[in-house]
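Whiteboard transcription, Tuesday session. T.W. wrote the structure tokens on the left side:
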């Protein structure tokens, strides 16, 4: 600030000197004397010193401004980053949060929540796992049927077919839990701004194959020609009404009605109680 004040003072002095020069020139014209004599009589030393100093100061200011250029670029980049972070936060706030599906009957999802979760999970298995990837269903071919233990095939006279998740998966709690988190992770990656190519790659490379392998291992008893075999907990007397049939739409409906009927009702709408 002191330097700016000194510069202003020097400019003011220079202006006064220039005004004096103009006045002397005007007087020279009025007197009719020669220009050379008038200029020789003038003392331009202070004006020249002020001009020289002003040039030096201006040059210094230009150097300071140039030195600030990288800082300005950094500030602009920082401003863009902050703007992008704000936009990402706004987008994230506008997205519905995915609440992890808790299938436990004690303190888990209520009837309405479980119904919505079943609808999403079944639709996803049918359209994505079965329709898009072909990972769910009966054995792919005769080679698979000839090797019932793996629900896939390894034959000395034929190709290997990929193992598939048995279609009775929804009747096995372990398979439901495994496929639930895989489904929700897929939705988060492909249906929200959370998804990136690397996260999609992780889903395909790490998550999905491991879940598929564990589900097939858990349902190995259902991977032969006999079809579905109940889990022990289904036939437990403490769980009455569990379906005991092969897969079809009617049995699926029966199973869902049983599952939802075992859950608590959703809380009634109303004002939030004071705490």
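and on the right, the sequence the group agreed on:
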């Amino acid at each position: 600030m002191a330097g700016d004040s000194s510069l202003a003072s020097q400019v003011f002095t220079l202006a006064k000197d220039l005004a004096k020069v103009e006045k002397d020139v005007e007087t020279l014209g009025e007197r009719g004397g020669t220009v050379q004599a008038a200029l020789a009589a003038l003392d331009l030393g202070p004006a020249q010193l002020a001009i020289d100093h002003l040039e030096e100061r201006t040059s210094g200011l230009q150097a300071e401004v140039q030195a600030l250029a990288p800082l300005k670029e950094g500030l602009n980049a920082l401003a863009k980053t902050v703007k992008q972070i704000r936009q990402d936060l706004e987008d994230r706030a506008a997205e519905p949060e995915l609440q992890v599906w808790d299938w436990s009957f004690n303190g888990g999802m209520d009837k309405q929540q479980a119904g919505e979760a079943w609808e999403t999970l079944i639709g996803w298995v049918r359209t994505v796992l079965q329709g898009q990837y072909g990972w769910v269903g009966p054995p792919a071919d005769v080679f698979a049927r000839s090797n019932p233990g793996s629900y896939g095939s390894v034959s000395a006279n034929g190709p290997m077919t990929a193992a598939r998740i048995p279609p009775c998966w929804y009747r096995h709690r372990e398979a439901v839990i495994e496929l639930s988190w895989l489904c929700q992770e897929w939705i988060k990656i492909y249906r929200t701004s959370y998804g990136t190519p690397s996260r999609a790659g992780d889903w395909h490379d790490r998550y999905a194959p491991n879940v598929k392998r564990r589900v097939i291992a858990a349902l190995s008893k259902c991977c032969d020609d006999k079809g579905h075999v109940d889990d022990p907990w289904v036939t437990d007397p403490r769980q009455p009404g569990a379906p005991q049939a092969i897969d079809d739409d009617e049995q699926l409906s029966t199973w869902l009605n049983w599952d939802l009927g075992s859950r608590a009702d959703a809380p009634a709408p109303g004002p939030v109680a004071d705490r």
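Someone added at the bottom: Residues 120 and 183 are 9 Å apart (CA to CA).
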